[in-house]
Amino acid sequence: DLVKHPLTDKGLAAFLADWEKTGQTIL
After folding, report:
1. What's the domain range around 9?
2. For the chain, how far is it from start to end, CA to CA, in angstroms?
3. Number of domains in the chain
């Protein structure tokens, strides 16, 4: 479920922040 899923609001925010650090785009 979403409560235990890594991509919660905080998890997703952290993921996007790390992704931006790589200089890549998601799409």
Report:
1. 1-27
2. 25
3. 1
| CA 22 – CA 8 distance, rounded (Å) | 21
Residue 27 corresponds to which tokens in the numbers above? 């799409």
Residue with tokens 């409560």, as numbered in its chain: 3
Q: Are 26 and 19 in contact (CB under 8 A)?
A: yes
Separation of alpha carbons 10 and 16, rounded Å: 10
Q: Report pLDDT digits (tens) over 1-27.
A: 556 666 677 878 888 888 888 877 666
How many Å apart are CA 10 and CA 1, to the nearest integer? 15
